[in-house]
Amino acid sequence: MKLGLSPTLVKQSLASHSWVGVLVGALMYLVCLSGTLAVFYPEFERWEQPDVRESTDFDPAAVEAAYRDIVAGGEPVTHHMFVSLPTPEMPRTSISSENRGWFLHPDGRLGPEVGHDWTHMLINLHLYLHLPSTFGMVVVSALGALLCGLVISGFLAHPRLFKDAFLLRLGGSRHLEQADIHNRLSVWGAPFHMMIGITGAYFGLAALMSLVLASAYFDGDTDALSAAAFGAEPALNQAPRAPAIARAIEETRRVAPEARPFYVTIEDADVPEEQYMIVGARHAGRLIWAEQYRFDAAGNYLGKVGFSDGEAGRQAIFSVYRLHFGHFGGLGVKLLYLVLGLALTVVSVTGINVWLARRRGRDRLNDLWAGFVWGAPPALGLTAIAQVLLGIPSTAVFWIALALAMAWAVTIRDETAAGRRLQGLTAAILLLLVAGYALRFGADALGSVPLAVNAALAAAAVVFAWAAGRGRERPAAAAQPTR
Predict the structure, then answer these.
(1) Cα(301)–Cα(281) distance, rounded to whole angstroms?
(2) What is the pLDDT of residues 167-221, one digit of tens each?
(3) Where are the domains of the chain?
(4) Which residues, including other chains, have CB under 8 Å from residue 473's CB and lie 6 or more apart?
(5) Beta strand extents in 289-347 (DSSP E only)
(6) What is the pLDDT of residues 254-298, one digit of tens each?
(7) How many C-beta neighbours within 10 Å does residue 400 have?
(8) From CA 183, how far away is CA 155, in angstroms rounded?
(9) pTM of the model
(10) In degrees to the nearest 10, what's the CA dihedral of 438, 444, 448, 454?
(11) First to last CA, the chain
């Protein structure tokens, strides 16, 4: 099948596709790599703290008593206070302020402090690229919008895309090899890529979109738009009291017996006269993140927002998160997102590889790119060793390690050798991480989730070691002049 497109349109589409891809390829690579791993952030959180007692059972009265103990113990009450209830995916109960949190034992006693710093570093890399949150979210969301443009321009730039859907020329010309990998993965993954681009663009561009929609439909009143989309805040004037968390949970079970509560948020907790509670509950078979049931401080039911059965737009808004991260359908969907996410990561890399291969000769940009691409995996491995095993903040570790990998690749002036050695380094770091984890946590490392994560890390180490060894067997490319 050949698309009937004019040669001029094809040429213009190819040019725009190439330049947009070059401009965003490096950032897209980091966002895609970290996002693929972030699909498993619940498993990583449990892996980070394997010594926390887990159970899907909890006593609402004990949770409320623990909340009161934390506040009475002098913990400052922040604007939002959070209670996480156990689920099969995250069988842990915790209470948190905006600054710190504690796990609860099944009987309600306070357990260790919540410490998911490495997982949060990974998520922040995906959501913000470690930039200031508001600016970083806009940058990453713009990449989502550009990804949609790349998908469309890629189809327009390759009228033989469907005819060549199974063409894969490996082992010959680097330009053809990288182009075929890029085009094949792009074609077969296009629906997934568009979905990721659209949902990713929503997170950061929603604020900008709200200004337009508020102007068009609510006379510029953004608060009215927010109320229409997410529900208006209840107007309360009540006597100050501790929030009746247990009653709110029990009332949710009564008004929605088919739903499963999995969090409670105390809104305006630092203003007792206005505070109210949101009980988030999951509805089986629904893509929405949660339905929100609202209660005053005494636990009196105020109503629900309507994410489960309200207007279609409201339901769609609260479905974006689970759709973007693949948190629906269980482990099978997560593994599918892993495969498709890795494919999109490869597409980001091979797009730049094609552009580099088309240039005459080579220069330091080739070396920098090799150090950037193959330096990111060992940098992430080092962050896990630093944060999880040694308690060293990991954000700076990542960027320093990545910068050192790029600088080293420039010094040896051989991107093939640089990639091969960094692959071998990644394998060594991952094996060191697994061994260090076993020594650090002992018997707790044998729990189901920690064992599964460590097995996956060991398998990844084997793959990287194989890739490094395979690179040694391939004949070195003919030297090209350095400009």
Answers:
(1) 14
(2) 666 665 676 777 778 778 888 888 899 999 999 988 777 766 666 666 666 666 6
(3) 1-49+115-231+305-358, 74-107+237-301, 360-483
(4) none
(5) 291-296, 301-304
(6) 999 999 999 999 999 999 899 999 999 999 888 999 999 999 999
(7) 12
(8) 9
(9) 0.87
(10) -20
(11) 42
